[in-house]
Amino acid sequence: xxxxxxxxxxxxxxxxxxxxxxxxxxxxxxxxxxGEGAIPLRxxxxxxxxxxxxxxxxxxxxxxxxxxxLPADQLERVRYARSLPGLLxxxxxxxxxxxxxxxxxxxVTQLERQLAMLPVVRRLVRExxxxxxxxxxxxxxxxxxxxxxxxxxxxxxxxxxxxxxPRAFAxxxxxxxxxxxxxxxxxxTALNFAIRGRLRADAxxxxxxxxxxLLPRAIRDSALTxxxxxxxxxxxxxxxxxxxxxxxxxxxxxTVSRLVDWKGVDVVLEAFARFSGSVxxxxxxxxxxxxRGRLRAxxxxxxLGARVRWRGWLDPAECSRAMRSSDVYVTAALxxxxxxxxxxxxxxxxxxxxxxxxxxLDTLDASRGILVDMxxxxxxADGLAAAMAALATDSARRNQLGAAGRxxxxxxxxxxxxxxxxxxxxxxxxxxxNGRPRAAAP
Length: 442
What we know:
By secondary structure, this protein is of the alpha/beta class. The chain has helices at 35-49, 63-69, 72-75, 88-94, 99-127, 175-182, 184-194, 197-200, 209-212, 217-220, 265-275, 292-301, 316-324, 340-347, 360-363, 377-392, 395-412, 415-430, and strands at 22-25, 54-59, 78-81, 132-135, 154-159, 203-206, 224-225, 251-256, 281-286, 308-312, 328-331, 352-355, 369-372. The longest helix is centred in the N-terminal third of the chain and has 29 residues, at 99-127.
């Protein structure tokens, strides 16, 4: 979650430390569920760093992961809720399904978990003397929220969505998935009117106009614009500018991605194969997912061999080190509404090559990266290959793009900026904060 690309207009100072007591409600939270799952963790950490009394309510299936990744002072602020009786297998079975049914199963799971959490939210609001409830995910505007009648203000979002596959790659959607996407505007309105939490929220945040257009008209105009991605800048130290290397020294490319079809990792492999036979280069693929086996087989068929390293999931600190040891970040994501890994690469001072589609158009331009046209499959692979070859032989341009990208993140996507804005929104919906800490709940 972060501000839009343009710096915000001047607003009132955020509340002082010790301000509103906040309950973050997220039906899943974690580092390994994509950028969306990390949002509630970042929000909790930032609020706690500001001295704000904040808690996180999430699903019990995240307990083991959060126990291993959160510091003790944050972990003690996490509460867990269980699924509705008999419905946990929907999520378990859904992960094994093809993309279309898997999407539907995940939608059912998101709604089921929220309904299961509702009585827990109401209890915690009373027990913890909560001032404001913030539900940052799901970011999908189609998935409705049942949070309402809590006795305190509710903030929802930022929401993000509405990105389609490029026309040239539309066949990657199953018929069911394509039908679901076509029905999104109607489904969003119907579901949000049937389960009216979002219509009753005190503040709804959206990442862009694509998402705004999917909201019911009743809340479309009043929604505030914030992106759903951001970076804790100090967690991504800047890569040092690199001098020109010898012709025999390989350029290191890196991509961070869940290995699923719409992330376009196969397109990156195709492009890498087209130029790396004659130019020394290596490609690190960080991440995992159901497409791993197919992608590895494709890399072998392309003759890439040891030039591609499959790193699997890395924790944030390891991922940061991998970024700093690389030269160029590359992604061909085909349906990226935001793109947190692109921001993390920019924060690390890496130049970025990305598909010119979806959320990448919001975060990148020619001054800090290379956007590749995705209007044809052949053109996409050719464009990526040409961009990779150009940066492989131009260290000065790599350094210039990397420095510009980090500066852009500092100005517009730093979580410190986001936290200020979030506290301003809390003050707005609660009627302001007088600067005096509330007494701790018993």
